[in-house]
Amino acid sequence: MLSMCILAEMEVNMSLLQVNSIVSGYGTTQVLHQVSLKADKGQVVALMGRNGVGKTTLLKTLMGLIKVESGSIEYDGANITQWPTEKRAHGGIAYVPQGREIFPHLTVYENLILGLAARSIKNQEIPDDIFIMFPELKKLYKRKGGDLSGGQQQQLAIARMLILDPKLILFDEPTEGIQPSIVQSIEYAIRAIKEQQKITIILVEQYMEMAFRLGDFCYVMDHGEIVMHDNMGNLEGIEVQKYISI
Ligand SMILES: Nc1ncnc2c1ncn2[C@@H]1O[C@H](COP(=O)(O)OP(=O)(O)O)[C@@H](O)[C@H]1O
Ligand SMILES: [Mg+2]
Fold first, then answer.
1. What does 83-126 look like in DSSP terms, one character per residue?
2. Residues with Cβ within 6 A of ligand 1?
3. For the chain, what percent of residues have pLDDT higher than 90?
4. Nearest CA to ligand 1 atom 17
5. Which CATH architecture has domain 2-244?
6. Taking all residues of the chain, what is their mean pLDDT, rounded to a whole number?
7. In the chain, domain spans
8. pLDDT band at residue 93, thresholds of 50, 70 and 90?
C-alpha cells in the first residue's frame, strides 16, 4: 500500500526533462562541467548567464547536436542520452536556435509547410492558432523569409516550430537583436504557450526582466556550471545580475 502511494507521488512529480551531471563540449574542449537540471511538465525554466558560459552548448546537447561525454539525459520517461537529433525531434523536442534559422529563399508559406512535411503530416493545412498568435505572418505569406525583419523571422521560426506540436521547446535567446516592439510580441507568444500548460519551455534569455516575468524556475550558469538555481519567486534580481552583467 505504502509503495503504491510512493509510486503515485512519483508520477505526479515526474519531470519531463532531467539532466544528470552532463559533460560535453567541442572536440577536446570541455564546455559543460557536470551540469544537472530539471524541468517539470508545463514549466518555463529560465537559463541565464553571460555570453560564453555554455547556454547554447547546453541546448545543443539536449537536442543531440553535441555528444554527451558523460552523464545522462532523461526525457518523458526515456533515457535519450544516445538518441540522434531526429529521434528527439520526433519525440517532441523542438529547438529554436539563436539567430533564427529560417530558409531565406523560401516564402513564409513554404517555410511553414516545411514544418509539416518534417512531421510527415498528410493534410498540409497550417493550423489557424498559429495566426492568432502571429497575425502579421498571414499578411506576409508570399514574402521570402530573407526579406522579413529580424522580429518577423523570429515569429516565423517560432510558428514553424509550434506546427510540430512539441512537448518541450528549447528557446535560445529569442529576443536577441530584435526591436523592442517585436520583443513584446515574442513575450506574448511565449506566455500564450505557457498558459496552455501543455508545453514545457527552457528559455535562454539575456533580458532579465522578461526571464523573471515568464520563468517559474531559474538556473544561472557560469563557466559551464550551474551556479544558482531556485524558484523564480525566491531569486533576487540583484544576485542574478552579478552573473549576467559584464
Ligand atoms: N563550435 C564551437 N567550437 C568550439 N568552441 C565553441 C563552439 N561554440 C562555442 N564554443 C565555445 O564554448 C563556450 C560556450 O559557448 P556557448 O555555449 O555558445 O555560450 P553561450 O551560449 O552561453 O553564450 C565558449 O567558450 C565558446 O567559445
Ligand atoms: Mg548562446
1. --HHHHHHTTEEEE-TT----TTSBHHHHHHHHHHHTT-SS---
2. 26, 29, 31, 49, 51-57
3. 61
4. 54
5. 3-Layer(aba) Sandwich (3.40)
6. 89
7. 2-244
8. very high
